[in-house]
Amino acid sequence: MMSVYNGERYVAEAIQSILGQTESRFEFLIVNDGSRDASGSIIDRYAAQDSRIRAIHQENRGLIASLNRMLDEARAPLVARMDCDDVSRPERFAVQLAFLQAHPEIAVLGTNTDELDADGAFFPCSDFHPEQPAAIRERLMVASAICHPSVMMRRDAIRALGGYRAAFRHCEDYDLWLRVSEQYDLHNLPDRLFLYRRSPEQVSEKHILIQAIGAACARYAAQQRRIGRPDPFDGASSLPSLDQIDALLGTTGIGARMRLEVIDSIKYSPDALNGGGLALMKAHLREGGTKNGFWRTAGRLVKLGMIPQALNLSFDLVRY
Q1: Is 80 left (phi over 0), alpha (psi -120 to 50) or beta?
Q2: What are 136-167's pLDDT values in tens digits?
Q3: DSSP 106
Q4: Residue 53's beta-bridge partner residues?
Q5: What phi and psi values does residue 201 have, to the nearest 5 degrees?
Q6: Residues 96, 143: contact at Cβ < 8 Å?
Q7: Strand 185-197 to 106-116 pairing
Q8: 57: left (phi over 0), alpha (psi -120 to 50) or beta
Q9: Distance between CA 249 and CA 311 in Å, rounded?
Q10: 171 and 53, same structural domain?
Q11: Which InterPro entries match (predicted)?
Q12: What distance in Å separates the CA atoms of residue 296 and residue 250, rounded to the nearest whole number?
């Protein structure tokens, strides 16, 4: 299942990589999520050529709504994810299907990846995702441990958990993996069956700050569930800002702790620092928070040519 929004540059290559799978028994659900470019016509052209494609055209509703729609409409017990700017290697489905058939306890199966840049240049990846369920559970309490578009999942298990949650925009997968890990096993194959596109235009690059805030909220919700308390964001359509967290939850200090987690996640991203991250750092300093690593951030800002921002941060480091 693949959602497409203004993906005309790469979507044909993504579709071809699925149609070229050695395991050919599948239905290919593609949602055109209100694209304003040629994505819809590209999708329809391939759908006319291959009956396995079921194209769904809708007004723009966002990735989470599109994924949940495809989960509802899918007819197979296993569903595989795909993003419209990535590439699946030909044996991906065959290897994942065989593993899931042999391991019924696994609900979500990811793969290791290599990378492509915006122009299609190939980069072998030296990093490995943890493979075993225990290692994945441990890693998930710090950060995501599975490449979302590489997964094959058991549809009924994901739907029973409520699918993707609307509040967790840009980290919907991380929130889902945390919830899955509390009832099922997740696993990563060591095989590099997926080519993940790195591009300044991809959603994860554009929304790092929102993603980091959502991830902090997802971790806190998981911690609460695991000690038997209600999920504070269950049923929410959006997440509160960090300065509203304590008032909403009736807590003290949780918002400040989350803010520090977010700062640590975004301190290497110029876009995130310029797009609200520096304001978080300044609020943290005003409240007497630790300065560890902040001078290095100021130095990076200088190297990036962000002189006013570096001076602003340096002034608060001295002032507080």
Answers
A1: beta
A2: 999 999 999 999 999 999 999 999 999 999 99
A3: E
A4: 28
A5: -90, -10
A6: no
A7: parallel
A8: beta
A9: 35
A10: yes
A11: Glyco_trans_2-like (IPR001173), Glycosyltransf_2 (IPR050834), Nucleotide-diphossugar_trans (IPR029044)
A12: 34
The CB-based long-range contact list for 254-262 (8 Å cut-off, 24+ gap) reads 254/220, 256/284, 256/287, 256/289, 258/213, 258/216, 258/217, 258/220, 259/283, 259/284, 260/284, 260/289, 260/290, 261/212, 261/215, 261/216, 261/219, 262/209, 262/212, 262/213, 262/216
User: Do 211 and 200 belong together in one domain?
Assistant: no
Of 204, 221, 255, the one marking the end of a domain is 204
CA 134 to each of CA 111, 126, 139, 151, 188: distance values in angstroms, whole numbers, following the listed order: 16, 22, 9, 18, 11
**Global model pTM greater than 0.90:** yes
Q: How far apart are the first and last CA of the chain?
A: 50
pLDDT of 202 strictly over 70: no
Point out the domain boundary residue: 172, 204, 236.
Answer: 204
Q: Which residues in 7-24 are b (16+ Cβ under 10 Å) and which e?
A: bbebbbbbbebbeebeee
Domain that holds residue 21: 2-204
List of residues 6+ apart from 300 with CB closer than 8 A = 267, 268
Span 258-267, mean pLDDT?
A: 91
